[in-house]
Every structure is written in structure tokens, then in C-alpha cells.
Amino acid sequence: MDKEINKFHALQLFTDTFAAETVHLTNEAIGIYIRLICFCWTKNSKPFTTESAYRICQCKSEECKVIVDLVLNEFFKCGDDANVGVLNNDNENYWWHKRLTAEHDYLTAKYKARSEAGRKGGLAKSDNASSKMIAPIPIPKPIPNKLIQPMFDKFWSLLDIKKGSKHLASKKYALNCSDMIPEEVAVSFNRYASTVKDKEFLAHVSTWINQRRFEDEDNNKPDINNVISRLVKLGYHHVGKNGTFERFTKKGKNYKINRLDKDFMILDDEDDKVVSKIV
């Protein structure tokens, strides 16, 4: 910390004070004063000789030297009026600036204190932290295969068209649909299949699942053909179309669905009461 490293490249200038203290100087004298304080600050406020001042101000005439002497005598201290650490005992010809020296000492102490506080903070953190500690990596807990397989089997059994490899579809189902209800996924695939006229171009079940097409809006919109197919699987007998209604029978009772009803409510044919709703 004793090594000289405190070279500050910027000097704070209080303009009102500077203007007030130099109002009586000529422009040339002000320029010389600025040259001298800038040099003094870049050298960490160390003292300098009169001859150095002449060289700093590039004096080539006695008139210039006279102005330098005036500035030195008014704004700088000469000799050992303060402990400024001159380089030899013959220091009567060494000049230093009281305000710059005080400012430099203040900033040096301030940044040393900050540096020491940062060092102590770093040591405290290193003491508390163990190099052997490794942040745990969360490992997702997979759904056991014995639970997924029955879900897939249910899904597979509800498909109107089972295209492609069942084994591959099972793998894709486990990856993409493990948290979904099998019946809903099957309904979505059947809706998609009903929209494909040429079944040769129907996607394999594994491809459909892997591309997550069950999230497509079109696959989630029921159509009347799919509704009829589902009701037949539920034990309804499709009688046929009558106007805007599709008519069904089940266990001796008559039911109907309005083709214009977007919710496809199952109605009792006698009193038009809602019996169930196709989801």
C-alpha cells in the first residue's frame, strides 16, 4: 500500500473560487497558474523548483519569468512550511500548493479506505464460501413408466385411425403428453383425422404427438362427424339427419343434436331438455 499508485487524472476545480482569486491576474498569468497547478497535480502534488516552473511555462524571456515568480509567490508555498517530503535538505527553492496537497491527501486516504474495505469484504466472502460447495442441479422426477403406459393404451384405444408405429407413438406420448388426459388427446387427434380427406396423407400418430399438434386451435374445434363417431362409441345409435338435427337412439329413448349448435348439446327428443354436452 505504500507504493506510489495514487495518481488522479482529474482535478476538481471550484470555478467560483478560482475566478474570485484570479480576477486581478492578466490572461497570461492565469494561463501560467493553470499550467503550474496541472503539472503539480499530475506529479501527485510533489514540490518543484523555480527552474522547473520556468520550463513548465516555457519561459523564453525575463518578462515571462517575472510573471511566473509573481504567480509562485502568491499561490504556492516555498520551503518546508509543511512536511511535503522534498528530495534534499536545500529546499528553500521548492514550491508546493497547499490546497492541492490537502486535496491529494484526502483522495488518497479515501480510496485506500475503500480498497481496504473491499479487500476485507472479499476475504469475508471467501471464508464463508467453500470451494467444495457446488450448487445442486435439480433433477426432474419422471412419471413412472408403469403409470404412463396405461394412459397411452387408453389414448390408443380411442383413436379412430391408428396410423404408424404404436411403439414409437408410445415414446412420443411419454415425452409430450404425460401430464395430459388421454381422452382429450385422443379427441384432438380424431378431430384432426376427420379433416383429412385422403387418409394416405394423414400424419402418423407419433409425428402428430411429437409436433404437439394437439395444441393447434383447429384440432380443438369439434365437428359434427366427430361428434357422431364419439356418440356411436358411447352406445348411441345414429338414426340419421332430419333437417338441422342429427337423431340418435339409446336404450329405447330418442335424442338429437342441432348441427348449428357449436356446443353440440345432446337433447331429449321429446322435451328438448339438455341431457349432456359434447366437450
Please provide a written account of the structure.
By secondary structure, the protein is an alpha+beta fold. Helix content is 46%, strand content 12%. The protein has ten helices and eight strands. The strands form two sheets. The protein has a five-stranded antiparallel sheet, with helices on one face. Helix 2 (27-42) packs across helix 4. Residues 82-89 have low confidence and may be disordered.
Describe the structure in brief.
The chain has 279 residues and is α+β, with helices and mostly antiparallel strands.
| Percentage of β-strand residues | 5-15%
Helix tally equals 10
The tally of strands reads: 8
Distance between the termini: 78 Å
Summarize the main sheet: 5 strands, antiparallel
Parts with pLDDT < 50 across at least 5 consecutive residues: 82-89
In the sheet with the most strands, the strands line up as: 4-5-6-7-8
Q: Give helix % range.
A: 40-55%
Mean pLDDT: 81
Shape: rod-shaped
Helix/strand/pairing category: alpha+beta
Radius of gyration: 46 Å
What are the secondary-structure elements, in order, as H or E?
A: HHEHHEEHHHHHHEEEEE
Q: What is the total domain count? A: 3
List keywords for this structure.
279 residues, alpha+beta, three-stranded antiparallel beta sheet, five-stranded antiparallel beta sheet
Topology (elements, then pairings):
Elements: H1 15-21, H2 27-42, E1 48-49, H3 50-56, H4 62-75, E2 77-78, E3 94-96, H5 98-128, H6 145-157, H7 166-176, H8 182-195, H9 205-210, H10 224-233, E4 237-242, E5 245-250, E6 253-258, E7 265-268, E8 274-277
Antiparallel strand pairs: 1-3, 2-3, 4-5, 5-6, 6-7, 7-8
Helix pairs in contact: 2-4, 6-7, 6-8
